[in-house]
Amino acid sequence: MAKVYFPEVEKVVYEGADSQNPLSFKHYNPDELVAGKPMREHLRFAVCYWHTMKGAGADPFGVGTRVMPWCDGGDEMTIAEHTMRANFEFISKLGVGYWCFHDRDIAPEAEGDFVETNKRLDRIVALAKGLQDETGIRLLWGTACLFAHPRFMSGAATSPNLDAFVHAAAQVKKAIEVTHELGGAGYVFWGGREGYDTLMNTDLRRELEHLARFLHMAVDYKKQIGFEGQFYIEPKPKEPTTHQYDHDAEACYAFLQHHGLVDHLKLNIEANHATLAGHSFHHELEFAASHGLLGSIDANRGDELLGWDTDQFPTNLYDTTMCMYTLLRHGGLTTGGLNFDAKVRRQSTEPTDLFHAHIGGMDAFARGLKIAAKLIDEGRIEGLVSGRYGTWDSELGRKIEADEVGLADLEPIAHERNVTSVASSRQELIENLINDAI
Ligand code: XUL
Ligand code: CO
C-alpha cells in the first residue's frame, strides 16, 4: 500500500460558514457560481512546492524547526520521491487544481555534474507526470532556481561572469523542456539575483542588455520546441539584491517594451513584492491588468511591521477583495492562477499547519471574490467612478482624448470657464460601501 503522509487529514470539503470543523472550507465552494462562473475557475489555486513541501522553517537567524515526514530518512533522491508523492497527496486532499515548482526544488543538483543533474530531474519529472495523470492535478507553471547556488551570487542572466550566464541558459532550456513535458500552463522568470548591491562595481546598461538577450533566447527556444505556455516575469524591487531590475510592474513594462519583449511575457504579480516596492498589491494588479499584462498571481502578504519578504498566507479580506475586484473588472485569469507563494511561520511545525494555512488563504480569496462580485453587481462604486469622470464624456473631452486639439485651442475655453472647483471624490462613501459589502 502506498505511504500516507497526512493520515490525520481527510479530504477537505466545503461545510459552510457555520461549520466548526477547522479542516473544512467555510467559504470556498468550488462549484458555486459567482458572476456566472464556478469559484474554482475564477480562483485557479496552486500550491507552491518550495515553501509548502520543502520549507523547514529556516530564517536568516536560525536553522529549520521542523522535519516533515516526507523528508525524514533516506538518500537525497529517495527523499525527493517521497516529497513529490506527499505533494500530490496534499494537493488532492486540499482539492486544489494546480502546483508550481523550481527545477531544484523537485530534484537536488548532483554537484559538479550537470548531465547527472538533468537525469535526476527527468526521473522526478516522470514520477510527477504519473501523479498528475492519476490525480488530474495540473502544472500552473515551472521555473528554474537561478539564485541559490554560489555560481549565481552575482546574478544569472545579469552576471558579470559569462559562464554563469551560459549555465543559467542551459538550466532554463531544461526547465522549459520539463515544464512543457508536464503540460505547464506557464513558465515564470523571477529575477532571483538579477540586480546589484552597489553601482560602483556594476555595468548597469550591459547587465540589462544581457537580461533582454537571455529572455529573447528563451522566447526563441519556446517556439522551437512548440511550448505554448505563457511566459511571465515577476516584479520584485529588492531582496536578495539591494536593487532588482524587475522593480515593479511599471519598470517591467518599460523593460519589456524597450527590448521588444512585450508580446512574449506577461507579469506574475506577487502581493508581498508589491508592498516591498512601496505599492499596494491592488496598485500592481490594476497597473498590470489595465495594460493587458496581468498573467498570474503569487498570493501571499507581507507583515506591516517587518520590512522584508515574509511570504505569509493571505488572510486580509480587504486585500483579497481589491484583488478580485480588479480581476473581475478586467476579465479574470486565463493561463494564470493564484499560487500560494507563502510559507507557514517558523513556529508552525506540524503538517496540519499546512492545511490550516491553505484553507485560510482559499477562504479569504473566496470571500474576496464574493464581495467583489457583489460590489460590481450593485454598481454603486462604478457609478460613482463614472460620475467622477463625467466632464470627460463631452465633445471637448472626446476631442482631447482623440488628439484633435492642442494647447492653443484650450486656452480660450479655459479663460471662459475659469474652473475654480471640482466635485468631491467620495472616498469615504466608497470605503463605507466596501465595508458594508464585507
Ligand atoms: C521570491 C519569489 C519566488 C518566485 C519564483 O521572492 O517570489 O519564489 O515566485 O521563483
Ligand atoms: Co513569488
Shape descriptor reads globular
* Named CATH architecture of the largest domain: Alpha-Beta Barrel
- Name the poorly predicted regions: none
Summed up, the helix count is 16
CATH level 1 class label of the largest domain: Alpha Beta
Major β-sheet strand ordering:
5-4-3-12-11-10-8-6
What's the end-to-end separation, in Å? 46 Å
How many distinct beta strands?
12
What ligand molecules are bound, each kind once?
D-xylulose, cobalt (II) ion
What is the total domain count?
Answer: 2
Explain this structure:
- With 438 residues, the chain is α/β, with parallel strands linked by helices.
- It has 2 domains: 34-378, Divalent-metal-dependent TIM barrel enzymes (TIM Barrel, Alpha-Beta Barrel); 394-437, no CATH class.
- Helix content is 46%, strand content 11%.
- The chain has 16 helices and 12 strands.
- The strands form 3 sheets. Strands 5-4-3-12-11-10-8-6 form an 8-stranded parallel β-sheet. Strands 1-2 form a two-stranded antiparallel sheet. The chain has a two-stranded antiparallel ribbon with strand order 7-9.
- Helix 11 (317-329) links the parallel strand 11 and strand 12.
- Helix 6 packs parallel to helix 7 and helix 11 packs across helix 12.
- The longest helix is centred in the C-terminal third of the chain and has 28 residues, at 351-378.
- The chain is globular and about 85 Å long.
- It starts with 32 loop residues before the first strand and ends with a helix.
- The chain binds D-xylulose and cobalt (II) ion (CO).
